[in-house]
Write a structure and sequence with these properties.
Blueprint (H helix, E strand, L loop, with lengths): L2 H19 L5 H43 L4 E2 L11 H4 L3 E8 L5 E7 L2 E12 L4 E9 L17 E10 L22 H8 L4 E8 L22 H36 L6
Parallel strand pairs: 1-2, 5-7
Antiparallel strand pairs: 2-4, 2-6, 3-4, 4-5, 6-7
Helix pairs in contact: 2-5
Length: about 270
Amino acid sequence: MTADAQGREGSNVQEADSGRAKRPRSAFSLGALALLGFAGIIGLLSLGVWQIERRAWKLDLIERVEQRVHAPPQAAPGPADWPTINAKTDEYLRVTASGHFRNDRETLVTAVTNDGAGYWVVTPLETNDGFTVLVNRGFVPPDKRDPASRAAGQTDGEASVTGLLRLTEPKGAFLRTNDPVANRWFSRDVQAIADARGVSNVAPYFIDADATSNPGGFPIGGLTVVAFHNNHLVYALTWFTLALMLAVAAIRVGREEIRIRRASRASGKPALR
């Protein structure tokens, strides 16, 4: 085959491919594409609106928590209030309680803080109001795990605690589960700790003690991190941008389809894809 013949054959193939590429889509294909595009745009817009609503909820939550954290402390809720305690109205409430620590029944809970790895010292406080509340007295490093190494902080007499009300943590941290039998704790599960230590009439919450210094310097209180991730605006803009991109793509497909149909009518080849 000569070079000219090969060139003509290649040109004919390209023209045939070009002709097939320019054939308009069928009504069914267009309808299916339009339906998918519309559903995609609506779905993305809905996700964006949902993130805007979540942002408003998060900002309201942050404001309410900030008010609680900096409010004057109130008496720790007693048994009459326990059934109504919930995260929405009580989490991070600033409370105070007085009584006697049961240092012989403290529990060490694995912790990671800005001061490094170590343990939370969770000790039952038998309050003067007749109930017991677990108190996270603060953080100790591994070399202070043994209570004898921080004997000055093992308060025996009357004690008063001010801190933040925290709800029980039934799930272990770091994807690990508490093992009461082996005395390994990864979360402050109030009821599980109370059962393991033989503590009764215990509040369904614990208190994160504030930064008031303990004798001897340990445990170190006031390390509660009150922070809420608020990336909802970024997420919303992402969803809205994707919706806009999909809408632009749909418009381009529609305009191209109109151009192809006009060209097809002009050439007298109304074949559909």
